[in-house]
Specification:
The protein is mostly helical. The chain has helices spanning 5-22, 30-37, 41-47, 51-75, 81-97, 101-112, 117-143, 152-172, 178-191.
């Protein structure tokens, strides 16, 4: 039972997620979303003035959910900064594995929302918070001699972009195992490509 305006808004966003996941943005109508949400079209417009406004709100909802999951994972007790970093990125992947419709939405979100100045500003804000969180873990690992002394912020951005690539692969290959892909990527991050005992050093020339 929906008790508050916030509950109703969330219910509409969840319905919109299902509608947009099954039908592209340009083909989905407000009537479709109202039907999926079980509300009248008039009620829908009380919460969102247009389909684009609703779509932008959906992007914000997903971004906030992902960021909150990362922050919660970072706060949990962990035996090492390596495991804390793993937990943070596992939380990112879990956001999408528990709500696979989000993967279906991503191409449209990128195309329709990310080109708008307001949405780009929101993206930069969320990315900055995520970068700060990850950089803090990396810096703590450096301080504990767990990680090599590198630029923690640059390392955080690099890892973030790579994880985004893992998610991007899921858009192209829906059958891809996101968790396995993340584990493989993090293994490369933490252990590198050089075999144990190798005399090679991967330093810039």
């Amino acid at each position: 039972m929906v008790n508050t305006a916030n509950d109703r808004r969330l219910e509409i966003l969840e319905a919109a997620t299902r509608a947009f996941a099954h039908t592209p943005f340009n083909s989905t109508t407000m009537d479709d979303i109202a039907l999926e949400a079980g509300v009248s079209k008039g009620t829908l417009y009380l919460y969102f003035r247009s389909k684009r406004e609703l779509f932008t709100a959906l992007y914000v909802h997903i971004a906030l959910r992902q960021l909150a999951a990362m922050q919660e994972a970072a706060r949990l007790p962990s035996p090492s900064q390596v495991e804390r970093l793993r937990a943070v990125f596992a939380a990112v992947v879990q956001t999408y594995t528990t709500q696979p419709e989000y993967i279906s939405l991503m191409p449209d979100l990128v195309q329709q929302v990310m080109v708008e100045a307001e949405s780009m500003a929101l993206t930069q804000m969320y990315n900055a918070q995520a970068t700060q969180l990850i950089a803090g873990i990396i810096q703590a690992g450096i301080d504990e001699n767990c990680f090599r002394p590198v630029d923690a912020s640059l390392a955080a951005i690099t890892v973030q972009n790579s994880v985004a690539g893992v998610l991007g692969r899921a858009m192209q290959q829906p059958e891809a195992d996101l968790t396995a892909s993340l584990d493989f990527f993090l293994d490369l991050v933490f252990n590198g490509l050089l075999s144990k005992g190798s005399n090679e050093h991967a330093t810039p020339s």
